[in-house]
Structure formats: structure tokens, C-alpha cells
Amino acid sequence: MHPDVLTIYRFYQSAFGQQVAQLIAGRILQFLPVRPDAVTVGLGYCLPYLDRLAARTLAASGGRFVAFMPARQGVCHWPGHTDNRTCLVEPLDLPLADSSVDHMILVHALEHAARPSALLREIWRVLAPNGHVVIVVPNRLRAWSAAEATPFGHGRPYSKGQLFSVMSDQMLAPDNWDTALAMPPFFIHKMPRLMRFGDKVGAMLSRNLGGALVVHAQKQVYGALPKGSAKAQGVPVLTQSSGSYFKTDT
């Protein structure tokens, strides 16, 4: 079940959600270079993360930011202080030209995709050559993927190996990764400040302890198409003509 936009919004408005956003945003910021002229698109529910990216980039005098939200989720206005920069979209058919985006982040997006490979193929299409993408998903190996009171407890969680595999198949081979949210969510929702301490301890013990996987990749252009993007073959369909059946392409 995909949580609606109001549910996710309320989570990130809470003290607990704000601490979650701060920890994950730190990982995203370390992976994306500062480019004053970059076009940055967030897909899923990325508003807390786009806020932080925009603050950093605008300090460098520039940057354009847009938030895309899936139709199944719903949409809300962003940012609050200026004209709306959010758009309701079909994730497998983004309203963007080929190679038009420099940076893309996916949060609360890939784990809800019925066709993850097709979604990543669409991301590959809109990214500029050597464009950057950062994908955040629930870590299958950690308790956050079962915490239904948070947005990370919904959809399909991924292990690091699973996410690396599906991204590499679409020519978005990961080149760096990290995790966040090392402390389990069940006992700290009333003590969000402990989360930062837990992440520091978790980083010293193991890189893979976090409940959220954060993976970075750049678009690869090798003169080939992503896996599975060859021209669709005709599907045999039985039709009746003059008392006999034959195959036809659709």
C-alpha cells in the first residue's frame, strides 16, 4: 500500500520525521556535487531533501528545482515562499525531454514501483550524460522496513545487492553508497535526538546498519540501450476470420 501525500507530509512535520530527513539529507548532499546551473528533479516525496539541496545550491547563486509526485500518492504545494514547483506525474512517463536533468533524487519512489526496471529506464532517459541520481529505499535487512508508522515501512524494501543489480541493469551502475537511520524506529520515536548519536555509532560498527539505503550512480552512455529496452515484440492475439484463427501483432 502506498501512503498518501498527507500521511507522508505529517510524518516529516513531526520532530521524529525532521530528524529522519536531516540524517538522510546528509547522505544525499555528500553524493551530489554543487552546480549552480544544475536542474534537479525529485521523484516520490522529496520535499525535505529538496529544501536542503536548494538551500545549499542557492548559496552558490543558482539552481533549478522541481518536485514530481506520483499520481497514486497525491501532490502538495512546494515551496511555501514562492510559486509552486510541484507536479503530479505518471512515473513511467515523465514530462521531460531526453537528457534534460542534471541531478535526480528518488525518495519513497522506487519501492512503490510495480515495474522498477521500467522506472529506472525512464530515469536513465531523462538524465543528461554523466548526470547524477541518488536513490533512497528501505533497507530490507533492517527494522525500518517493517515500521508501518513511517513511510519506510511500505512498499518493497531492497538489500544492497538487489538495488545494485536492478540499477546496473539499466546502465545506472552504483559508484557509491551509504546507509542512514542506524537506530531501530520502535523505541526512539519520542527521543529523536538519539538518532544522530545512533547513526554515529552505527557508522563505526558497520556501514550497512542503517534502515535506509542511499545509493549514488551516474548515467552511463556506451552507445547501447539499457537492458530490456529493445523494441517491443508483437504479442500474439487470437482473432477469428472466416472460421479460422490466426496470429496478429498488437
Please tell me how large the radius of gyration is.
20 Å
Low-pLDDT sequence parts: 230-250
E-strand count:
9
Helicity, as a percent range: 25-40%
- The CATH homologous superfamily name equals Vaccinia Virus protein VP39
Strand content: 15-25%
Q: What's the domain count?
A: 1
- The quaternary state of the protein chains shown equals single chain
Walk me through the structure:
This protein is 28% helix and 24% strand. The strands form two sheets. The chain has a seven-stranded mixed β-sheet with strand order 3-2-1-4-5-7-6, sandwiched between helices. A two-stranded antiparallel ribbon has the order 8-9. It contains six helices and nine strands, in the order ααβαβββαβαβαβββ. It has one domain: Vaccinia Virus protein VP39 (Rossmann fold), CATH 3.40.50.150. It is an alpha/beta fold and 250 residues long. It has helices at 5-13, 15-31, 47-58, 116-126, 160-169, 194-205, and strands at 39-44, 64-70, 86-89, 101-107, 127-138, 174-180, 212-218, 237-241, 244-248. The chain is globular. It holds the Pfam family Methyltransf_11. Residues 92-135 form the Methyltransferase type domain. InterPro entries: Methyltransf_11, SAM-dependent_MTases_sf. Keywords: Methyltransferase, Transferase.
